[in-house]
Write a structure and sequence with these properties.
The chain has 18 helices and 31 strands. It is an alpha+beta fold. The C terminus is likely disordered.
C-alpha cells in the first residue's frame, strides 16, 4: 500500500474509526463521489475502500479513461483512498482503476455510486446529492412515525416496474419513466385499495432476467426508469396518494461481474475468501462476508440510505434463509460448520440483530420484512428475546399449503382439509405476511387463474374463494401484479401485463371483487388489529371436511365490527346452510361471491336474524342459501350484542329481585299480623285473669272459704281414689 497521510480533511480519523467498528451509518456521505468545493474550486470528491490495492485512480469520460490522469492517495490506515477532480458535473461517467497486489489492473464501478450508466453500460454516473431533494411528504412521515405497522392494515401490491406497463416506443427499451409510473401506478393502486407497493429490483443491476436480485449498484436507483431525483419524485408521489413504498433488498449475495464487487481490489473483500462460505453453488453468486465490520457497515448504511434519502417505508429482505444456514443449497463437503459444529451462520445472525435493532431504534414507523422460507424460530421477535428483530416474516408455509389445496379438484379437497387449517396452528408464533408473490407465477408454475381447477367459470369462482379466505385469514396481505384481474399467462419481465383482458367481463368482475376485498380489509380493524392473537380469530367450524366449508370469526379489541366468514370450496350449493353464531340479533351480509362488497356495488346489505338453537356448539345460528363456491361475510356489532345481553340479564335479575322482594314483604306482613294476633290474645288472657282475680276478690269471705273447702275436698277425693 502507498504511504498513508491525513488527506484533504473530508475523511476524518473518526470516520475511519466508526467505519472500522461497523457503526458509521452515514458512511455513504463520505465514500463514493460527491460534488464539492475545495479551496474555492468546484468539482467532485472521490473516496473508495480498497485495502488490498497498491494504487488507485479515477477514470472517466472526462479524462479519456486514462489511469494516470487522476491518481488517489491513501488516507489514515483504514484502506480508504481519495482524490478531488475539479470542473466535473452531474451526468459524467466514471470508474475506479485499482492495481492489485498481484499487479493486475481492475476497472470497478463505485460501490457507493448514487447513479449508474444505462445497461449494457457498466460505469458509474456522477449525480447530485440526494439529500438536496425538496420533499413534500412531511404529513405522511409524521403520521407513519405514530403508527405501529403490526397493528395497521397492510395490503401490498408487489410490482415489477419494467413490466407493469410498457411504453409506446418513445421510452428507452419501452421502460416507463419514474415520473410516468408515479402518476399512473399511484392512481391505480389507490383506486384498488392497496396500502403499499413493493418494488422488485430498484438498486442497479446489469441483467434484466435477474429481476433486480443480482445487484451491482446498491446505492443507485436503476437507470432503466430514470435518475435518482426521478425515483425520489416517485416515492413522494406515492406518499401524496396515501401509498407506502417497500423495496426488495438483497444483502445475501451479489454477482460475479468483473466491474462489480467481486474480488474488488484483487482479493476477496466484500465476500468470504473461503469459497465454501463465499459462493452460492446454485446461483453462481458471491456471498457477503458478515464477519467484516466494513462489509456490515456497507449493508446497514445502505438500508438506512434508502430510508433516509428516499423515504421508503420498508425493506423486504430477500433470501434470508440462504444467509442463516451455512449449508443452504450446498451438498456435503461444500460447506464448513460454525465454531460449535452447527450449520448456523453466527455472523449473519449478528448482522441481522444489529441491522434490525438500528431500524427499530429509529421509531419512525418503518418496517423490515424477512423472506425466510424455513422454520427458523423468533424471526420477528426482538434481539433481547434472542430473536432476529424483523417486523414481519413472509409466511411461505401458508402459501405452499394454500396453493396445493387450491389446485386440487374439489372432489379431493375433503382429504386435504388440513392444508387450509394448519396455518392456524402456528399463526401466533410470528408477525406474518400472507404472500402470493411473483415466484409463484413463473417458471411453468402457471398464473393464479390457471392454477385453479375446473372449466372457465369454475376457475374464476375458485379464485374468488381463495382470495376471500386469504383476506379473512390472520396475517398481512401481498398479491403480485396481474393476479387482481386474473391474468392468464405467467409473468414475463419482458412484456407488459395483459391490461386488454379488462375488456372482458370475467376479468373486470375479478378486479372489482378484489377491490371489494381490499376495501373490506381496510375498513374493518378486525382483519388486521390482532393478526397474531387468538383473541382476533375464532373457528366456528374447523372440521367440515366432507363439505369443504370453512367458517370463522374475526374481531378486534373493540368488538364493534366483528366478522363471520363462510367459504364453500366445492361446486355444490347448500340451500339451507346453517352456521353457528355466538349472539342473538341481526347480522349484516356485507360481501358475497356474486356481488362482492355490497358497499362497493352500491347495493344495500341484507340482514339475517340469528335463530335460537344449538349449532356448531353455539346457542344461535344463521340460516341461508350458500351457493356453489359461495362466499358469505357477515358483520355484527359484538360489543353491542354483549352489552344488550348484559342488560337483558340485569333486567331479568332485577325482576327476580323485585318478585323476591314482594314475597318477603308479604311474609313480613303475615308475621306482623300473627304477632299482633298473638299479642292481642295474650292481652285478652291477662285481662280475663285479672278480671277473674278481681271478681274473686269481691266475693264474700264465706263464699271464698267454701270454694277453698270444695277444692280441698276434690284433691282429697282424688288422692283417695
Amino acid at each position: 500500500m502507498a504511504e498513508v497521510n491525513r488527506g484533504m480533511g473530508v475523511i476524518t480519523e473518526t470516520d475511519c474509526y466508526l467505519f472500522g467498528q461497523g457503526t458509521h451509518y452515514e458512511i455513504y456521505k463520505k465514500l463514493g463521489a460527491h460534488p464539492m468545493t475545495l479551496d474555492g474550486v468546484s468539482g467532485y470528491y472521490f473516496a473508495v475502500w480498497a485495502p488490498h490495492a497498491t494504487a488507485v485512480s479515477v477514470v472517466g469520460d472526462f479524462n479519456d479513461w486514462k489511469t494516470e490522469a487522476n491518481p488517489c492517495v491513501a488516507v489514515f490506515e483504514g484502506g480508504i483512498w481519495e482524490c478531488f477532480i475539479p470542473g466535473l458535473h452531474a451526468g459524467m461517467l466514471y470508474k475506479f482503476a485499482l492495481r492489485s497486489a498481484a499487479g493486475e489492473l481492475l476497472f470497478k464501478a463505485d460501490p457507493y455510486a448514487r447513479s449508474a450508466e444505462f445497461r449494457p453500460g457498466t460505469a458509474s454516473k456522477l449525480a447530485d446529492e440526494p439529500w438536496e431533494y425538496a420533499w413534500k411528504d412531511d404529513a405522511w412521515m409524521r403520521k407513519r412515525a405514530k403508527q405501529d405497522p403490526r397493528k395497521e392494515a397492510l395490503s401490498i401490491y408487489e410490482c415489477h416496474l419494467g413490466s407493469w406497463k410498457r411504453g409506446d416506443g418513445n421510452e428507452r427499451d419501452g421502460f416507463l419513466s419514474y415520473e410516468t409510473l408515479a402518476r399512473e401506478l399511484s392512481a391505480y393502486v389507490k383506486e384498488m385499495g392497496y396500502t403499499h407497493v413493493e418494488l422488485m429490483g430498484i438498486a442497479e443491476y446489469p441483467f434484466d432476467g435477474s429481476w433486480g436480485y443480482q445487484v451491482t449498484g446498491y446505492y443507485a436507483p436503476t437507470s432503466r426508469y430514470g435518475d435518482p431525483k426521478g425515483f425520489q419524485f416517485f416515492v413522494d408521489s406515492m406518499h401524496e396518494a396515501g401509498i407506502g413504498v417497500i423495496l426488495d433488498w438483497v444483502p445475501a449475495h451479489f454477482p460475479r461481474d468483473a466491474f462489480g464487487l467481486a474480488d474488488f481490489d484483487g482479493q476477496a473483500l466484500y465476500e468470504y475468501a473461503d469459497t465454501r462460505k463465499g459462493e452460492h453453488p446454485d446461483w453462481g453468486t458471491k456471498v457477503f462476508d458478515y464477519s467484516k465490520t466494513e462489509v456490515k457497515n456497507f449493508l446497514i448504511a445502505n438500508a438506512l440510505y434508502w430510508m433516509n434519502e428516499y423515504h421508503v417505508d420498508g425493506l423486504r429482505v430477500d433470501a434470508v434463509a440462504s444467509m442463516l444456514y451455512l449449508d443452504y443449497g450446498r451438498r456435503d463437503g461444500q460447506w464448513c460448520p460454525n465454531q460449535y459444529g452447527g450449520n448456523e451462520n453466527l455472523e449473519a445472525i449478528e448482522f441481522f440483530k444489529h441491522l434490525n435493532s438500528v431500524i427499530a431504534g429509529r421509531k419512525d414507523g418503518s418496517m423490515i420484512i424477512a423472506e425466510e422460507s424455513t422454520a427458523w424460530p423468533l424471526v420477528t421477535h426482538s434481539p433481547e428475546e434472542n430473536g432476529l428483530g424483523f417486523t414481519f416474516k413472509w409466511n411461505m408455509g401458508w402459501m405452499h399449503d394454500f396453493l396445493e389445496y387450491m389446485k386440487l379438484d374439489p372432489y379431493f379437497r375433503r382429504d386435504n382439509h388440513n392444508k387450509m387449517t394448519f396455518g392456524l396452528t402456528y399463526f401466533t408464533s410470528e408477525n406474518y405476511v400472507l404472500v402470493l408473490s411473483h415466484d409463484e407465477v413463473v417458471h411453468l408454475k402457471c398464473s393464479m387463474i390457471n392454477k385453479m381447477p375446473g372449466i372457465y367459470e369454475d376457475k374464476f369462482s375458485n379464485l374468488k374463494c381463495g382470495y376471500s379466505y386469504m383476506i379473512g385469514h390472520p396475517g398481512k396481505k401481498l398479491l403480485f401484479m396481474g393476479q387482481e384481474f386474473a391474468q392468464w399467462h405467467e409473468w414475463d419481465e419482458k412484456v407488459s401485463l395483459n391490461w386488454e383482458l379488462l375488456e372482458e367481463a370475467p376479468h373486470r368482475d375479478m378486479q372489482s371483487f378484489v377491490r371489494g376485498l381490499l376495501q373490506l380489509y381496510k375498513t374493518h380493524p378486525a382483519l388486521y388489529r390482532q393478526d397474531n392473537d387468538w383473541n382476533g380469530f375464532e373457528w366456528i367450524n374447523v372440521d367440515d371436511a366432507d363439505r369443504s366449508i370453512f367458517s370463522f370469526i374475526r374481531r378486534d379489541e373493540t368488538l364493534k365490527k366483528s366478522l363471520v366468514f363462510v367459504v364453500n370450496f366445492t361446486p355444490i350449493a347448500r340451500e339451507d346452510y346453517r352456521v353457528g353464531v355466538p349472539h342473538a340479533g341481526s347480522y349484516r351480509l356485507i360481501l358475497d361471491e356474486s356481488e362482492g362488497l355490497y358497499a362497493e356495488s352500491g347495493k344495500r346489505a341484507s340482514s339475517h336474524r340469528a335463530k335460537p338453537g344449538e349449532c356448531d356448539r353455539r346457542p344461535f345460528y344463521l340460516e341461508f342459501a350458500l351457493p356453489a363456491y359461495g362466499v358469505r361475510v357477515f358483520e355484527f356489532d359484538e360489543k353491542k350484542k354483549i352489552e344488550d345481553a348484559k342488560k337483558r340479564a340485569a333486567k331479568k335479575t332485577e325482576a327476580v329481585k323485585k318478585t323476591s322482594g314482594a314475597g318477603k314483604k308479604t311474609d313480613a306482613k303475615k308475621a306482623d299480623s300473627k304477632k299482633k294476633t298473638e299479642g292481642t290474645k295474650k292481652t285478652e288472657g291477662k285481662k280475663t285473669a285479672t278480671s277473674k282475680k278481681t271478681a274473686e276478690s269481691k266475693k264474700p269471705q264465706s263464699a271464698r272459704s267454701a270454694s277453698k273447702k270444695t277444692a280441698s275436698s276434690a284433691v282429697g277425693l282424688a288422692s283417695s281414689l
